[in-house]
Amino acid sequence: MALNYQALIERSLALGAQGAKLISTSQIVFDPRSHLKCRFGCGRWGKLWTCPPNLNVSLETFMQAFQRYKTAMILTTADPAEGQKVAVAIEKEAMLSHGCTYAFAMALCVQCEKCAYPEPCQFPHLARPAMDAYGVDVVKTLEPLGFKVAFDREGKLLPAWYSMVLLD
Q: Does a structural domain hold residue 85?
């Protein structure tokens, strides 16, 4: 990793992350089947602005942008709300203090108790897509890094929630 992001790791922990780890984007695993799981295994499909099929950035456009990133930060938090808060804060800090002009957080958007969709998003400055919305295989990406990914009977992550910030 070309730049020293230790300050971002420390900041994420201060903001409430349980863990933070820098990785090369070459370690991020994509699988098109994640889109099928979104469509047929997730109750958020079509109900949130930040979930398929409502994403305003196509998979092709996202992948073109993703190819330009070299470093990412994986964040572990206790729940999705904490994950969104920390990821968006780290995205902003990376941009303002570390020269990562195009830093981009990927965290399930839970800003609103019920998404405003199809009405305009009430918090577009905070809304971000989840990793799997763009095809990231969360399990195959995280387990080789030493993270334990487990699910309860309803399919919710246990005991932690994972988010990612693409840095540079």
A: yes
Give the tens place of pLDDT for each residue, 56-67. Answer: 899 999 999 999
Range of the domain at 47: 6-166
| 36 burial via Cβ count (<10 Å: 0-12, 13-18, 19+) | exposed
Q: Which two tokens stand for residue 99?
A: 């020269």
Report yes or no: 76 and 17 within 8 Å, Cβ to Cβ.
yes
Instruction: Flag the least confident range among 3-12, 15-24, 25-34, 155-164.
Output: 155-164
Q: How far is CA 94 from CA 4, 39, 91, 106, in A?
A: 11, 32, 5, 14
Q: Which of 125, 141, 44 is nearest to 84 (CA)?
A: 125
Residue bearing tokens 């098109």 = 32
In a domain, 1, yes or no: no
16 assigned to some structural domain: yes
- Total domains, the chain: 1
Q: Which residue, 136, 109, 105, is CA-closest to 34? A: 136
Cβ atoms 90, 107 nearer than 8 A: no
pLDDT of residue 150: 82
- State pTM to two decimals: 0.92
